[in-house]
Here is the input.
Amino acid sequence: MSSFFPSRTVAVYMVRLFLTRTFGILAMLVLVLQALDLLTESSKILVVPGNGQAAVLHYVGLRAPQLVARFLPFAVLLGTILTLLQMNQNSEVIALKAAGLSAHQVLAPLLVASLGVAVLQFAFNEAVVAPGTATLDRWQKVDYARLAPDRGGRTNVWVRDGDDLIEAADVSGRGMGARLGGVTLYDRTGGNLIAIVRAATGRPGDGGWRIGPAMRFEVGSGKVTALGEITVARGVRPDQFTLGSVDADGLTFTGLRAAISDLRDAGRPTKSLEGTLWHKLSGPLSSVLMPLLGAVAAFGLARSGQLFVRAVLGMALGFAYFVADNFALAMGNLGAYPPFLAAWAPFLLFFLIGETVLIRTEE
Here is the structure.
């Protein structure tokens, strides 16, 4: 029984061609797109007093990983096509098939290498992209001004309790362990502000929130009263402070899964977040599909004059996958598709398409 892979020498040769072209294309794409992005964002960064070259470089350090994660599957697709085109033109594919190798055996080294790229991308997304996205979102919300240190909680959270409004300067913890800092309660009746209550800290308790030491300012009379520790906002749940909004792109896989669990326990909808959670797995795995979709460029005689057409067909299949993937994810966010289907249906569909095209175009 022959090995599923070509010889060690051929496998190493194909993987080296594939990886050098893939990461070369990725570097070119990121360089060009980052330069175009800086044309619009650098002026917004530099207009803030105190921002200079260091701030621009900091932006590049946060933005470039997003571009790498987004365009790595594109680079894998183009790297596959260029590798297979060169091998086809040099009659290397014909030699491998003459030696008795099937189409899947010829592609095996690229499939294994692309699986390694997918694992690398998932780890890169978890360690670099997600934290960088969260920081960049916070920075953009303050228009590139100086950021306060991130203590892992939420800041400037507003919650409505009937007519009243509650502001927390910072929120940390989850559930009954949630803690508020810099609490301001705007006591309103019929839309009119009656009083303002300020407290240094707040925590869940007595069916509401225990805040203190509290000071009450009467708007009408200007009287200030020390209230000590009091209970307010009896209708406000902890998740309203801690889970007001979840930025799925700024969370790691485990962090997003924990946030979904908290939202589900609070009885809040999680379908769109579940689709994004599954996509954190299916997204990197799209790199494994690219050698299969681009393989149409490998099998066919170079002298037939259809090599360029085959390359275009391979690119069309790859780009069609990304269109279908984005469409399915959008439908999942709208609730039209179940979360698992939204994340995995395009992957499974184009896997079958790639296998069909590979078998029918092999000569």
About this structure: The CA atoms of residues 134 and 145 lie 15 Å apart. Strands lie at 154-161, 164-172, 179-189, 192-205, 208-218, 224-232. The chain has nine helices and six strands.
